[in-house]
């Protein structure tokens, strides 16, 4: 009977430690998300599973082209975490016209787009402490061109890699 109780206690401790580690890792280091929409097609497919870095990305500035997870800005009408690509950085002047994104007067190359945007937006200057994000599926993405800037404090992480499905496993380009 004593051996039986010891085994139960050991398993109980093991389960608690595993749960605490899992909770700590997901809360502070990395997290995962399943992508429920097609706003990032063709880069991210429906139901792709992504791993996000929640800590180490803060060691260097976010770059144009980074794919981030963030809390939807107030007034956006969105209630879930979102995944989009950073297009505009703090201080940039951004405009969408002629099917292209123009940053500080120059058209940028966007080889990841599903199709050119069929709307016009801006010109608008991005304030300090904020980013402008778009989906790669520009014409079917509810993003900054609809609800505005993402405050830096809303950014929860940067995509590290896609882990599912296995045939597309790896870093997102």
UniProtKB/TrEMBL annotation:
Compartments (UniProt record): Cell membrane; Membrane
Transmembrane spans: 12-30
Main location: membrane
GO terms, molecular function: serine-type endopeptidase activity; signal peptidase activity
A Pfam family per the record: Peptidase_S26
GO biological process: signal peptide processing
Membrane topology label: Single-pass type II membrane protein
UniProt entry keywords in alphabetical sequence: Hydrolase, Membrane, Protease, Transmembrane, Transmembrane helix
EC top class, as a word: hydrolase
Active-site feature positions: 39, 84
GO annotation, cellular component aspect: plasma membrane
Reactions that this protein is recorded to catalyse: Cleavage of hydrophobic, N-terminal signal or leader sequences from secreted and periplasmic proteins
Enzyme Commission designation: 3.4.21.89
InterPro entries per record: LexA/Signal_pep-like_sf (IPR036286), Pept_S26A_signal_pept_1 (IPR000223), Pept_S26A_signal_pept_1_CS (IPR019758), Pept_S26A_signal_pept_1_Lys-AS (IPR019757), Peptidase_S26 (IPR019533)
SUPFAM superfamilies: LexA/Signal peptidase
Domain of life, source organism: Bacteria
Residue ranges occupied by any Peptidase S26 domain in the UniProt entry: 9-164
CDD domains named in the record: S26_SPase_I
Family membership noted in the UniProt record: Belongs to the peptidase S26 family.
Protein name according to UniProt: Signal peptidase I
Organism name: Desulfitobacterium hafniense (strain Y51)
């Amino acid at each position: 009977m004593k051996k039986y109780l010891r085994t139960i206690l050991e398993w109980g401790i093991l389960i608690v430690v595993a749960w605490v580690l899992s909770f700590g890792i997901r809360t502070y280091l990395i997290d995962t998300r399943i992508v429920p929409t097609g706003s990032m097609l063709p880069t991210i497919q429906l139901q792709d599973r992504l791993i996000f870095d929640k800590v180490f990305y803060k060691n260097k500035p976010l770059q144009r082209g980074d794919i981030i997870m963030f809390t939807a800005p107030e007034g956006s009408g969105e209630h879930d975490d979102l995944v989009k690509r950073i297009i505009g950085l703090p201080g940039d002047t951004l405009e969408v016209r002629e099917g292209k994104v123009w940053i500080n007067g120059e058209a940028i190359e966007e080889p990841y787009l599903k199709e050119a945007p069929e709307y016009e937006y801006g010109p608008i200057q991005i304030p300090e402490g904020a980013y402008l994000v778009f989906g790669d599926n520009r014409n079917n993405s509810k993003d900054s061109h609809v609800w505005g800037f993402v405050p830096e404090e809303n950014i929860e992480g940067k995509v590290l890699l896609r882990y599912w499905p296995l045939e597309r496993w790896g870093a997102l380009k």
